[in-house]
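Message: I would value a second opinion on how I read folds in token form. Give me a protein, with the fold worked out from its sequence. Write it directly below this note and I will take it from there.
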Amino acid sequence: MSRISAISRVAVAAGAASALGALAAAGRGVGASMGARPDGVRLERMRRSPQYRAGAFHNRRRGTTSVPASQRDVLERYRQNAETRKPAGPIPVVSAHREPATSGLHVTWFGHASALVELDGTRLLVDPVWSERCSPSQHVGPRRLHATPVPLERLGRVDAVVISHDHYDHLDMATIQWLSEHTEAVFVVPLGVGAHLDVWGVPGARVVECDWGDGHDVGPVRVTAVESQHFSGRGLRRDGTLWSSWVFAAPGGKVFFSGDTGYFDGYAAIGAEHGPFDVSLMAVGAYDPTWRDIHLDPEEAVRATAELGGGLLLPIHWCTFVLAPHPWAEPVERLLVAAGSAGVPVVVPRVGDRVDVAAPPGLDPWWESAAARATPA
């Protein structure tokens, strides 16, 4: 064997070892992050739900497309919008430390669907995702486009963690484990999601699982699960846990949190039973024509808010991760046009900013500088 041949074989072997190492790193922790399937008493309770049949949860209304009908069409839209799916410049983030609000209604948006709702002194953290990627692996998958505004240790007291469903961009293992260990929060989740929390070490006594219509009191705040139209799953199996929107109600105000949902004809009924609301945190991003049944687009978010009696619309589910082929700033741009036509008030806070719902700030188009691109010569 020549010296060059020997060196080549060593190089190939080293490359293979490096590739295997990278593959092993990408797979590390994936099994744990996927969570667990419900069983035992939990499964028996799920089977009694009106939403559960034939081994899975179902939306009440039959949709036309619950998954993309044509992957080719979606991929083509990704290609067409390749230059605009990410911002051209940095996304402004507010990192100021604030003392907990002792009264009133305040909302701090941390990006995507993560937010802190402070209502009558009670602090509710919704869909918290602090990890770098919304993925079962922190080596591959959608990566955040901006830093987290504050580290978890600077959040202060958290009275409840409320989860809309078990997709990775809404339920993050590392964040849940930190909150379980370092706070006294109760975890209020849809049916079946507690199975994931069990294997992540969250004490069962701190987990409350709700079907649509079920509620739980957190201090003076009544937290109630209401219908949404979506799906669930962290692996190959779908719809083994429930998905939900949430209502927070207290003497000091009412909040609607959409979580992840498509448009359906039940918003007026939700508003009649639980509203009117002072503020609605409504998903406006990660949409596509073939995902209409499971993701609101901006115009549908405005329509749903109006039907809810939703009050001030605060857009969520955009900005932080690239999860759909539309341009990065399009959700908020379309939202403002639709809301203006419908007379729905909107606030678009910077990531990390706290909104006093009783005195929301005026419109500051901060996203324009982040989305701006140089005009070709």
Notes: The longest helix spans residues 3-27. The radius of gyration is 22 Å. The chain is about 25% helix and 20% strand. Residues 1-8, 10-27, 64-69 have pLDDT under 50 and may be disordered.
